Amino acid sequence: MSFIIMLFFMLSSWPQEQPAPPLALTLEQAVELASQQNPSLLALAREIETAQGQTLVDSALPEAEVGLELAGLNFPGARQVEQETSFGVAQTIPFPGKLKLRATAGRLIEAEARLRLQKARLLLAAEVRKVYFRSLFHQKTVEILLKNLDLLQEIQKNAMARYALAAAPYSDILRVRLEIARTRNDLLATGNDLKVSRQELALLLGLKGETPLVLTSSLEQQPADWKLEEWLARKRELSPSLQLARLRQELAEVFSQIVLKNRWPDFSLGLFSPSKKLGATGLSFGLSYPLFSRKRLTGEKILAEAEKQKALFASQAAERFYESRTRQAASSLAQSLEQIRIFEDSLLRETEEGLEKALSDYRLGRLDSLNLMDLYRQASLVRLEYYRALYLYQSALADLEMAGEDYE
Q1: Domain ranges of the chain
Q2: CATH of segment(s) 21-65+90-402
Q3: Most CB atoms closer than 10 Å: which of 7, 74, 328, 329?
Q4: Pair 275, 84: CB distance under 8 Å
Q5: Which pLDDT tens digit goes with each residue over 296-333?
Q6: DSSP assignment, residue 74?
Q7: What is the pTM of this model?
Q8: DSSP category for residue 168
Q9: How far apart are CA 219 and CA 130, in angstroms?
Q10: Cα torsion 61, 66, 72, 73: sign
């Protein structure tokens, strides 16, 4: 028995894993953290280094060849001759312009890798923004429902007091209790939505799902006064997708020039020194001409022309896709902003004032519980829809930032 007690104390005193401390994050910090820890972005960053290395490989001279030549092999039955050995080195030199074009193509591929990384960062930032504000919306909904519960409990106390004075029927108490039960169910569902959205955000940030997050940005925040048309023009100028489309056209044109250069011969220069005549260094010169490679050259030309056409069509498609998505996103943003103005101009204030007056009238016996519950539901719905409109505005802003960038 004493052994069991000792074992219990040992296990209870064993150091337990401490829960992770809460991590406070603004929206900007969340985006930065996601950019630093997202595996896809890290892989794309390595692709830039890969492209840089490949450029160096493709634009380098071919390897030199060191050779040993033995002349004067004496076969049985043949006249015997003096043997001589020559030692030399040869270097293949591509036709002028070939290496420069390959280096140009390599630099374009490096730029393509950078744009892909920039595009992925933009898409990730927009996704983080949407999930961040979705989580804030669920958090705000939980706060509103908790306030509603406090209000309903106050109404229930008033109903019970009036019932005790025979000033209200028992059905008033039942109505309030049913509303309390419904609100608690809504609170449970919203709490689960909040948990899921926090887990999604933690996943985007590269954190463990159980890491507690404290979101310090406000759902009500709106961008500073900015002109939409100027912003859209700037966005179009800096769009990674449109830059990628134009760059791929340039790359296809460079590949076409490389194909034309491949029709020209490469050179080979060599120096040789015979063993019998030291100092009598010889020079060799050769051409690598595609004399029997007409089929390959024709195929390369067809491929190059096809790639140019594909790049042109893809660029046109990217332009149309970008314009369509941007117009849709701008329209959604304007609509969501208009919804917020409707709430803020008068609806919120009038609804709150109406509910306060209804509560006062109910206490004084001027309003029955049926009408009070109706006004309560309307006021609760208006508050929730207002914050939903704020969330939809932030989501529409994220959609506008990434509009047209999801084209592949």
Answers
A1: 21-65+90-402
A2: 1.20.1600.10
A3: 329
A4: yes
A5: 888 888 998 999 899 999 999 999 999 999 999 999 98
A6: -
A7: 0.81
A8: S
A9: 11
A10: negative
118 contacts 44 by C-beta, under 8 angstroms: no
Is 251 in contact with 73 (CB distance < 8 Å)? Answer: no
pLDDT reading at 79 higher than 80: no
Cβ–Cβ under 8 Å, residues 348 and 386: yes
CA–CA gap between residue 302 and residue 25 (Å, rounded): 54
- The span from the CA of 386 to the CA of 406, in Å, is 30
Q: Which of 110, 109, 123, 113 is nearest to 35 (CA)?
A: 123
Question: What are the C-alpha distances in Å from 327 to residues 55, 130, 319, 323, 398?
Answer: 39, 19, 12, 6, 14
Tell whether the model's pLDDT for residue 16 goes beyond 50: no
In 3D space, the residue among 252, 249, 247 whose CA is nearest the CA of residue 115 turns out to be 247
Is residue 131 within 8 A of residue 201, CB to CB? The reply is yes
Which residues lie below 8 Å from residue 94, measured CB to CB, with a gap of 6+?
A: 61, 62, 266, 267
pLDDT of 9 strictly over 50: no
Written as six digits, the tokens of 288 are 């690598």
Q: What is the mean pLDDT of the chain?
A: 84
Count of positions (residues) in the chain: 408
Shortest CA distance to 247 belongs to which of 314, 346, 172, 339? 314
* CA separation, residue 205 to residues 39, 124, 194, 399 (Å): 10, 10, 16, 19
The DSSP result for 278-332, as a single string, is: TT--EEEEEEE--TT-HHHHHHHHHHHHHHHHHHHHHHHHHHHHHHHHHHHHHHH
